[in-house]
Amino acid sequence: MARTEEEFTMKEIAVNINGSGDMDVFTVRNTTENRLYFDANGVSRTRNDLNEIITTCGEDGIVYFTNLESQNVIESLSNDIVMDGAITSVAVLNSQSKIIIVSENENCAYAYTLPPNAKMHKLLFRSTCTIRQVICSENLIGIVSDNPTFHVLLAQNTEKVIAVNGHAHNVKSMAIDPLEKYICTSSMDGTVKIFDLDIVQLEAREVASISINFSNIKDERVPLRCSWHPQGHLLAVQSKEGMIKAYQRKTWVPVLTLMVPVGSATPSDIHIVCFSPNGNYLAACTGSKEILVWDLHQTNPTASGENFLKKCVHFSKLSYESLALQWSSTKNTLIVYHAGGKLVLIEGVVPSYLPSPLLLTDVSTTPSVQSAKPILEPDDHESRVEAIKASFGFGSNVENRSESNLQDMSLTSPQSQSPFQPSAITHGPVQLLVWNLLGEIESFSVHLENEDVRDLIKITFVDRSARNVKLPDSYRFTMACLDQDGAFFAAPHRVLDEEYDQDASINHRLQGQDEAKGYICSIVYYHPFHSWANNSSWYHRFSHLEEVECIACSSEFCAVATSLNCLWIFTTSGLEYALIRLSGRIVTMTARGRMLGIFSQSPMDRLEFELLSVRVWSDSCRVQSIAKGIYPSSPHPFDVYGNKEEKEQLRRQRTQYGILEWVGFDENEILYTLDSYCCVQALCASSGWHWIPIGCLGNVMDKSPKDRFGVFSLGVNDDKLYYIPIERGQKAPRLRGKLRPVPSTFALTTAMFPLTKESSTEKSTPYQNLIWQHARMHHRLLSSSDSMSSSICEEEKLAQKQAEMDKALILMMKTACVDENVTRCYDLARCLHLEKSHRIAEKVVNHFGLHQLLKRLEELYLIKFKGSGPVSSGVTDAGAVNLMGSGTAEVPKTYQMSTITRPIVRDRNHEIPQRRNMPTIHAVAPPNPFAKRTVENERKVSNDESPAAGNRTKEHLGLERLALFQSPNCKRMKK
Fold first, then answer.
1. How many domains does the chain have?
2. What are the backbone angles phi and psi of residue 798, rounded to the nearest 5°?
3. Integer Cα distance of 396 and 386 in angstroms
4. How far apart are CA 151 and CA 108, in angstroms?
């Protein structure tokens, strides 16, 4: 090979799944019929640059669009065309008004309008067998199926079809002459035939037949695609293993032979060939997963005799077999789509010392020529004058300095964030207004028999025993939230569509006064699931001066944030309950029970949070602020190999901080958040209403930016975060029809921040996040004491959680006693919850003979559970004395006892009065959570409780056995 030391870059872009597929590349043009002449944000382009778009399809039934310039998948255009089953081929018409896709299940070729909002235009062709390829030229559309007969359609009138039958076996591929006079087809019968088309008579006549030799020509994975020269005077055909022949037009005589270089590449069959835009280079994909490029501009194919060319200017190897190959028309790039479902962009495929593969009109001048400016030599006199001006505060130096300061401020200024609904999928073929652990709300359209389109809302519950709900979407809802008691919807402002809004009653209800004519104002709608009244659903229309930006609902209230930075709170019956002015623009919010979490952006673009308590009751304070402050975004991870200046500069860049992606409550009304670094944080009462970082999903912060992935969260329940991993750069998972991916779980009780270490062995005990368990448990204690009612079942569950945590603490105390670390053991004892657990801890300490520590634990027991002071102040430290608190002389303030060891006292004067004849509820001790339940132990306990049992000694159960552990200084005493 010649001078292969030239550097080139290869980049893979994941699009479809593994398997078969096809690709087409086209340059976006500014035409009236072109709907793709928009960027990812939907803003019309006004500049003159041309972007190339790569469209791909595969067995997942999705058509993806990739921008060659940015080398990213265009999310706003992709996932817009989805079909059940595989899409075998795709092609875009030269007018860029339609895209043709082939459905493998239906054996049909459909014409769709280009996205965004792609819709099926018409059915082009239906076949009795599988369609393998569709190809387009200026006026022709070629269709190849598993049949000896192939078809050619006229692009202007697709009703006119030319059926050509000239092969003895199935046709594999087709190539259309640039002049649209000839068509070349390859077949499994081992021949490549050229047909002369007569568009007027709709006929085709065979003019030449070329024999080829392939070892696996009948394999469906071999595309066997030939290529025409851009000027049409040459046809490149795979002749046999490792050989390509170029045939001259009309005579069909080989004038050039290209051979795979021996020793540099593996001799194998050549699957695809493709000429460069100017025809000076020829690229090929081989069966050994290799890419080869030959230089043709030094040869003279029109000379007498046949020329041989064995040297290649490029060689690279892929990981999968190629499915499609094309050159870029604007860059020195070769585009390959292989069976791994990825695009491979080979930049710099032609070395720099060779002529460009592009056309002369496409070759742009170098940036140095375009930006050439006269270079002036520095003048000492002018520099002195500018220095004097700068000393007085004006001049060019001051202006340059101010511009540089503005650039530095732009780097360090925080990034703004648009409002969003948590757990919503608004892009793609399947639009879910909300998807959480309770269910999902899907917005879709149905085509009726009279060609009308009807929008519907479908509410699907995770609980299959619940009945799904289907509602007509007459308001075009774009936001929704789902609760166990009802669903809340919202629609923003939009222009009145006379064709769509045909119902006059709807227009009369939604339209405002004369100043708002021609618009439909924002509206919210609440639909309860279980109500004792028939007319319990309601809607509310806002003024045309404000627009709904975010909503949230719970069993107590419904909240709406508008563009005027106002927070409207409604009851579930539609009553206007409260109106609050926010400090900035809303970003997102969530609600559960009586708690409402609000995240807004201040005028300084700082993300702030506020936790409100909303109670629909006859209280003087309807809305109470629980916590408020600046939300702590996750900074960029620490770079071990970076120097101090780079780290400081990275810390000052606010754009490197994590972006809020999801918020939600759990069953204990604890507020959780998830950012772009997959960092989970929680806000609870036990931490003084400060944010607690719990862990990082998949240790994303420890990975490089290219290896990081995204997360779509569904919610938190039972100390587990349910999520769906997505690819980096995406906002939501890719959904197809009714299929939903199985969510993964992230255990919060075993998580660590910032790095969660996996256990080396399966039998090893997993790490317990005691900090988070303690915070979660005490939040439940505080919330249960403040709530209106507390059931016995909830208290038993809380006691079980406390016992589990005390068990882990006592095990840690036992380890501390073995190591004779008495101070740590004492600190662990101060964190115990139950009185029984404290007594077991005393037995453990007594067993190890730590008498001084035992005396401290006895005094700690009197302070925590008996409410009395220490016997001797010389033993108890200041920390234990502080547990008593500094109360008044009349009523001394004691340490708050556990809810399991003290009666629950609540002030019910402001609540509903109790009944006089209400039966007395006697206090019942909860079951021992430490007891090890076995049949033998239950029989012994029942015998001990009977009168005939006498004074039989009971067997030690649960954590009491910890007191009988073997001491390192003495042996266990037998009874």
1. 4
2. -65, -40
3. 7
4. 13
- DSSP H helices, 760-791, are 770-786
The tokens for 839 are 């007594």
Cβ contact 102:87 at 8 Å: yes
Q: Are 625 and 614 in contact (CB under 8 A)?
A: no
Range of the structural domain that residue 888 is part of: 795-903+926-975
Name the DSSP class of 82: B
Q: Are 269 and 255 in contact (CB under 8 A)?
A: no
Spatial separation of the C-alpha atoms in residues 329 and 275, rounded to whole Å: 11
In angstroms, the CA 875 to CA 873 distance is: 5
Q: Which conformational region is residue 604 in: left (phi greater than 0), alpha (psi within -120 to 50 degrees), or beta?
A: alpha
In the block, tokens 């002389």 appear at 889
Strand 290-295 to strand 333-338: parallel, antiparallel, or no bridges (unpaired)? Answer: unpaired
CA distance 247 to 249: 7
Choose the final residue of a domain: 760, 784, 808: 784
pTM of the model: 0.54
Does residue 611 sit in the same domain as residue 659?
A: no
750 and 779 inside one domain: yes
Per DSSP, the residues of 378-406 read: P-HHHHHHHHHHHHTT-SHHHHHHHHHHH
Q: Contact at 8 Å (CB) between 501 and 455?
A: no
Residues 857, 304: Cα–Cα separation, whole Å: 106
576 three-state secondary structure: strand
b/e sequence 271-299, b meaning 16+ C-beta within 10 Å:
bbbbbbbbbbbbbbbbbbbbbbbbbbeeb
What is the distance between the alpha carbons of residues 26 and 95, in angstroms, rounded to a whole number?
Answer: 10
Closest CA to 816 of 772, 850, 855: 850
Tell me how far CA of residue 83 lies from CA of 54, 141, 229, 244, 312, in angstroms.
19, 21, 35, 37, 41
Q: Which two tokens stand for residue 161?
A: 């079809």
Task: Give residue-wise pLDDT tens across range 348-391.
Answer: 999 988 899 987 644 433 333 333 333 334 445 556 566 665 65
Q: Are strands 671-675 and 660-665 parallel, antiparallel or unpaired?
A: antiparallel
* Mean pLDDT per 10-residue interval, the chain, length 975 residues: 60 91 86 47 41 91 91 82 91 88 93 86 90 93 93 91 91 93 93 92 92 85 92 92 91 90 80 93 92 81 61 89 93 94 93 86 38 40 60 54 45 68 87 95 79 82 91 91 95 72 46 56 93 86 92 95 96 93 94 95 89 86 92 79 69 76 93 93 90 88 78 93 86 84 91 70 58 78 55 74 86 91 90 90 92 92 78 46 42 41 43 47 55 54 47 47 49 44
Of residues 350, 341, 224, the one with CA closest to residue 287:
224
What's the pLDDT at 903?
43
Give me the half-sphere count of Cα atoms (radius 13 Å) on the Cβ side of residue 354.
23
Sort strands 607-614 and 623-630 into parallel, antiparallel or unpaired. antiparallel
Q: Are residues 427 and 572 in the same domain?
A: yes
CB-side neighbour CA atoms (13 Å) of 743: 20
Distance CA 551, CA 559 (A): 6
Residues 613 and 627 in one domain: yes
Q: How far is CA 163 from CA 144, 205, 255, in A?
A: 11, 11, 31
Question: CA–CA separation, 679 vs 697, rounded Å?
Answer: 7
Q: Cβ(65)–Cβ(76) under 8 Å?
A: no
- Domain co-membership, 584 together with 496: yes
Q: Which residues, listed in sequence order, are joined to residue 99 by a DSSP beta bridge?
A: 92, 112
Instruction: Give me the sheet containing 679-683, strands edge to edge.
Output: 660-665, 671-675, 679-683, 691-696
Has residue 177 been placed in a domain? no
For residue 760, is it within any domain? yes
Give the integer Cα–Cα distance in Å for 828 and 532: 52
pLDDT tens digit string along 712-721?
Answer: 999 999 899 9
The torsion angles phi and psi of 692, rounded to 5 degrees, stand at: -115, 115
Q: How far apart are CA 701 and CA 342, in angstroms?
A: 26
Q: CA dist 637 to 362, 644, 677, 731, Å?
A: 43, 14, 9, 21
